[in-house]
Every structure is written in C-alpha cells, then in structure tokens.
Amino acid sequence: MAIQIWHNPRCSKSRETLKLLEEKGIEPEIVLYLEEQPDAAAIKSVLAKLDISARELLRNSEDAYKENNLKDKTLPDEALIQAMVNQPKLIQRPIVINGNEAKLGRPPEQVLDII
Known about the structure:
This protein is of the alpha+beta class. It is 37% helix and 12% strand. It is globular, with a radius of gyration of 14 Å. The two termini are 12 Å apart.
C-alpha cells in the first residue's frame, strides 16, 4: 500500500510535508480531502492510526468550530466526527498514512517516524 497524504495545497505545513516526502524519494498518493471528503469510517480509521481522539483532530481556529459550538466538551466523538465529515476544513492537516500508522505533519518532520 502506498503512503498517502491528506493534503491541502493552500496550507504551508501541508506543502512542506509533501515536499519533505518527495525529497525522501516518496511519491505519496495525494488525497485532496477538501474535495474528496472523507466519510465517518475514513475519519475513524485515521483517528485509530493516529491514536488520538476526535477532539485532537479538530482545527479549533476555524470559523466552523465556533459556529457549531464544537468547544463544548460534552459533545461525543460521534458528533465531532460528523462535524468533520460535514466540514472537512475542520480536520487538522496534513495527515500522512503508511499502512496502520499515521502522523500529523505538525511539524512536518514528525512524519519521518512512519516512512
């Protein structure tokens, strides 16, 4: 299975992470997750590979975070995952996936642990 990156070309960290992979001779499968919106199952799978909670994957700086009151700590993971399905810009980026492992590219060098 190829290494995959959930990529947003407009994000500097995402571009830096992709460049780092390419410099290591890796041509990852690029998933433009804002266009090819992941479903709940895909997000749950990534959460398991990242070994983090749904809340940790949320971008709390997005307007949608405030508009949907996602700071409410009583919201279950299912509600947070559904918010990310509905508005994928809420997903932290980039995410690099290699088999059963994944890393957030924040900072980009973190992804080197799984390649």
